[in-house]
Backbone:
């Protein structure tokens, strides 16, 4: 009976410890982060969209598609050529009808420089027929890049929301284990005191020590998990969380 009474007292102290534990107050940015999801989630999503490398690839693909459409529309210009020429020598001037031609040497004319400039346009029927097809293909690639961008944005939003929820859960678990550790510390002190006074058996004291040891390990694991989740979110948004939240 004495052993069961001591165990009852031990668990009574555990319950009393849980009721007396108070969580530490958060800083201003933490209060906003954990208590105002409607405020913080849009900020997190915008930062993640800006930082996303996958979306940068989508933007580059859109820019390439736009440039290819422009090039396809200007492809007809490939058949247009500017020809220029320069010559120097004798040539009969047909404009001057009074100019006489030497019958013995018809090339015995005054030497002069001759210039010519002209435009030439050539285009195969195959290129002409495929022009509309090329433009249509590049327009489809542009639509594909735009659709990929929308899918990427949706995926980023999903990742941010899920990571935010994991942080909330990790924080709740950490607070729970911290409360349990505080209770275990109180019961450890009581058990040590009663063991010194001879009111507690060795196995009962060892139970209190084991409870405290397991609570300490649980706090360390929960703290590690919580910090890891925070670091992962900061990696997603590309900056420390407190830098994202404007505090007064």
Residues:
């Amino acid at each position: 009976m004495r052993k069961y009474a001591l165990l009852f007292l031990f668990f009574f102290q555990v319950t009393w410890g849980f009721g007396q534990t108070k969580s530490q107050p958060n800083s201003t940015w933490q209060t906003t982060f954990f208590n105002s999801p409607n405020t913080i989630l849009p900020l997190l999503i915008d930062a993640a969209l800006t930082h996303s490398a996958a979306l940068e690839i989508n933007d580059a693909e859109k820019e390439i598609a736009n440039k290819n459409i422009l090039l396809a529309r200007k492809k007809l210009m490939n058949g247009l050529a500017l020809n220029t020429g320069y010559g120097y020598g004798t040539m009969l001037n047909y404009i001057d009808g009074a100019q006489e031609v030497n019958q013995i040497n018809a090339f015995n004319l005054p030497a002069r420089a001759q210039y010519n400039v002209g435009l030439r346009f050539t285009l195969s029927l195959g290129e002409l027929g495929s022009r509309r097809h090329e433009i249509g293909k590049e327009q489809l690639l542009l639509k594909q890049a735009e659709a990929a961008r929308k899918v990427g944005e949706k995926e980023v939003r999903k990742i941010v929301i899920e990571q935010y929820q994991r942080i909330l859960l990790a924080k709740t678990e950490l607070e729970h284990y911290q409360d349990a550790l505080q209770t275990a510390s109180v019961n450890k002190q009581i058990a040590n005191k009663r063991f010194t006074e001879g009111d507690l058996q060795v196995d009962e004291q060892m139970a209190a020590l084991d409870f405290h040891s397991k609570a300490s390990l649980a706090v360390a694991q929960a703290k590690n998990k919580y910090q890891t989740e925070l670091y992962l979110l900061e990696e997603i948004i590309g900056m420390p969380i407190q830098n994202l939240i404007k505090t007064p």
